[in-house]
Amino acid sequence: MDKVKNTSSLADPAALAQLFDQREFRHALSTFTTGVTIVTACSTVDGSEKLVGITANSFNSVSLDPPLVLWSLSKSSHSAAVFETADYWAVHILSHDQDGLANRFAKRGIDKFAGLTIERGLGDAPLLSGCTTRMQCKTTYRYDGGDHIIMVGEVMHFDHSDAPPLVYQRGNYAIATRKELTDEAEALIKVTTSGRNTDTAASNTITPLLGNAYFQLYDKLRESGAQHGLNDTEFFVLNTLAANEGLSLAELMQLFVYAGHSPLAHVLDDMTVRGLLHVIVDQDEESNNGLFYLTALGHDVAQKIVDAGKQIEADMLSKLGEVDTIALRTLLRRFVNP
Ligand SMILES: Cc1cc2nc3c(=O)[nH]c(=O)nc-3n(C[C@H](O)[C@H](O)[C@H](O)COP(=O)(O)O)c2cc1C
Fold this sequence. Notes:
Pnp Oxidase, Chain A; Arc Repressor Mutant, subunit A; binds flavin mononucleotide
């Protein structure tokens, strides 16, 4: 929009054409979120069989009856000669973990099928596996579309899976996660804050949400610690040493304070007496204080807690589903490593 400086020229096509900025146009188009496909075909060119495949996000549905789909092929594509003669082509709607494949089929001058296991479909078109959906199409129309050819095909056969699809948004691969409807989100905030604070902006802050999520998860883990006779602090010691053995008292104290636990040395003594920990004193160390390790019993209890933790996490994440779990992991990683 800001490319059109003088609004009086809006009615003048020649003036508008001059103001048209190709890069901005691409940028504007990239705001339209799409899936990602690879379209493949096979044809005989100059007497030899040629397999082609191209990453395309211009794919779209056209008609249900007859079942028609379209995509547009750049006239400069190396694969153009094959698509212009092939009677059939296959569209693969990629699944969320196939971004590597999308990059491979967006490259020129490489053997895109090298090392891939393919089947052959209608018209011998190569069929890739692991996709969300595959459609085998008969070429129905080819239209001229500027620097592209609009390929319309009738879907003769298709198969699909539950694998979440790969998404393309503003030049990046993405995943699609279900959005909370704005009304729903506002209603939820009112319920969770019991009307105490109906200021949406304040209730929408991330810190209490993260804290709440952490405590809900940690509470369940703590229960599993209690089942093994461990109080909060002991549970923390066991977890810490399971992940990072051979810590000195000073190092443990530092972690205790950081995590909000009371820095009590007698907890360590007590756990040592109960056979969960043992101390190894390094004679060369000046301090002579020793380092804390888990005993075989300590490892056994820690493993049981880890297993219970995995189950608790799996139960919680099963409520989110595959895509939201990936989205949560992605966002948390980005949050922790900005
Ligand atoms: C996400 C994405 C979407 C693309 N969509 C299209 C498209 O719809 N049509 C097209 O001709 N090229 C598209 N391309 C570019 C081609 O994949 C790329 O030019 C490829 O190298 C062509 O291969 P070829 O020259 O071997 O045929 C896209 C690339 C990416 C990364």
